[in-house]
């Protein structure tokens, strides 16, 4: 009799732990975290209080601080470390992962310097492996609390995606699939920049109309860049596009939105990051997105203002004034 599929998740932060919890309900799952105290707490008390307060984790979920053990154990590998830390963790894990193992990314940033998407970084570390991602509107705390949500396994090979879907699905967690990996990944990356802008509007005390404007025009920017880079336009109307954009721009649980909100309330970026003690991928991705916008000759006024706030010290109030001064072109022609 064949044994069940073993899932290894790298990254013991809020989302890595939550995805490991989803998988542990279906199949044996091992979570790698670099912090030994976190590992001991997950194994002995079944909580990860640093990232997820006192939410209970399943007793069947085992954690390890031994990266090699997790790598050797994996029939399916899930990468939940933040984008900028991914390359070094993967270099250490790769020699111990079996050749055919599918690798799924959870990350929503772009690597600084190389401008690579997380799945491109993974494909470089794991040549020949099926590589994809699990993404969607998935605020970790809500998923762990069992509030209904949906995600997408995006992978060019539909047969592999079909095999992976049930590993993460639950009664209140629906997992769809999509072969447009590029579009699905860019949706998650780019919404973080727009969420910072949405947070800024929140912090400035603007209204729901403003929020809707930022979200809708933000979706136009995301779609324009994504399509120019070769993604399918309709992917951006799906869970990894509009869906994730809505959740992140609207929820007080979003770290990216919180960054924008606190910047608008005159807190420094350094202080916000220090106090948050969690990753807000949009901060380090904004400049790279603007490099891509220039390379692909795509107009991204909201992303440009966010980049100016995050990297050049412009005040959010000024950024909003800048946006309102920009010429309003034809709404739809601009997107094509
Ligand atoms: N939290 C959420 O609701 C969601 C997060 N994501 C994405 O998942 C990725 C991970 O995010 P979170 O788990 O939320 O982050 P987090 O800030 O909660 O935790 C990050 C984890 O990565 C670890 N880490 C940091 N640097 C590392 C290194 N050099 N080597 C090994 N481990 C390292 C930290 O120790 C921590 O365990 C991000 O790209 C994020 O955008 C995606 C969907 C939902
Ligand atoms: O990606 C997320 C929800 O899908 C989480 O967003 P934040 O990283 O802004 O918290």
From TrEMBL:
Keyword Lipid biosynthesis set for record: yes
Pathway(s) per entry: Membrane lipid metabolism; glycerophospholipid metabolism
Binding-site positions, NADPH: 14-15, 34, 51, 108, 140, 255, 279, 281
Domain Glycerol-3-phosphate dehydrogenase NAD-dependent N-terminal intervals: 6-159
UniProt GO molecular function: glycerol-3-phosphate dehydrogenase [NAD(P)+] activity
Active site: 191 (proton acceptor)
Any Pfam family matching the protein: NAD_Gly3P_dh_C
Entry keyword Membrane: no
Keywords from the named record: Cytoplasm, Lipid biosynthesis, Lipid metabolism, NAD, NADP, Nucleotide-binding, Oxidoreductase, Phospholipid biosynthesis, Phospholipid metabolism
This protein's name: Glycerol-3-phosphate dehydrogenase [NAD(P)+]
Organism: Paraconexibacter antarcticus
Lineage, highest ranks first: Bacteria, Bacillati, Actinomycetota, Thermoleophilia, Solirubrobacterales
Record gene name: gpsA
